């Protein structure tokens, strides 16, 4: 068996739960962000580009992944960061601080301007400021990213009935769908509110054996509550598997809740994809500490 594939537990009705530890494939460029960057880096080299430019928020897994990949594979990196107020708070932000240590140069912009980041005028302006670059979209999703994510599932995963993963922009689940088998069902758990995802996934996915389960976003992107924190801490105590607060915990919570509610037929073999994101735990804990809420108590 693949070392990244482990059985977690068996529930009643012989429903068994497994996890694929994509969080372990690279020490910093974890999980799906590594898969999404892989062929983009090849393409950037092919185009003789020396700089990668991308976008993200304060605790973005993608920002850190690009910074680390740039350092490892010899690219300069530029991060356009949402929120001008962060410019003076880099030291207090574990994600940005680490990205800076990897050599990333930041450009902090207002939330308003950030919304225009896909307009040609904005890209022109950035080009004037920084010169040529290879652009990687927010969250890292594009066609090459989906091709990279098609490598998440391998031969050993063929006998699972259900494959479950967290959804942000939909790139990762699209790759998983494309490499799944007809008889498998892929369930996506959006970590944010909004119904634009269905359409985005259809752009990249070439099969219909999937569904989005939209009941487990916990109020929206990066929103968490004490119930979810306790879930993360309990899950870690029971199974020694660390889950991140933004994505994988919401998906895992959802799957276990659905098992308890009888959603899955008896004898189902369910595979969770651990897409990583553990670098975000420290940042989230600093927010929780300020609000005097229980912290995430896992070793990452
Ligand atoms: C970015 C991210 C996702 C979402 O991936 P998409 O391809 O944007 O849907 C899921 N899990 C983790 C840990 C992530 O960092």
Automatic annotation (TrEMBL):
<dbReference type="InterPro" id="IPR036052">
    <property type="entry name" value="TrpB-like_PALP_sf"/>
</dbReference>
<dbReference type="GO" id="GO:0019148">
    <property type="term" value="F:D-cysteine desulfhydrase activity"/>
</dbReference>
<feature type="active site" description="Nucleophile">
    <location>
        <position position="60"/>
    </location>
</feature>
<comment type="similarity">
    <text>Belongs to the ACC deaminase/D-cysteine desulfhydrase family.</text>
</comment>
<keyword id="KW-0663">Pyridoxal phosphate</keyword>
<feature type="modified residue" description="N6-(pyridoxal phosphate)lysine">
    <location>
        <position position="33"/>
    </location>
</feature>
<dbReference type="Pfam" id="PF00291">
    <property type="entry name" value="PALP"/>
</dbReference>
<feature type="domain" description="Tryptophan synthase beta chain-like PALP">
    <location>
        <begin position="14"/>
        <end position="276"/>
    </location>
</feature>
<protein>
    <submittedName>
        <fullName>1-aminocyclopropane-1-carboxylate deaminase</fullName>
    </submittedName>
</protein>
<dbReference type="InterPro" id="IPR001926">
    <property type="entry name" value="TrpB-like_PALP"/>
</dbReference>
<dbReference type="InterPro" id="IPR027278">
    <property type="entry name" value="ACCD_DCysDesulf"/>
</dbReference>
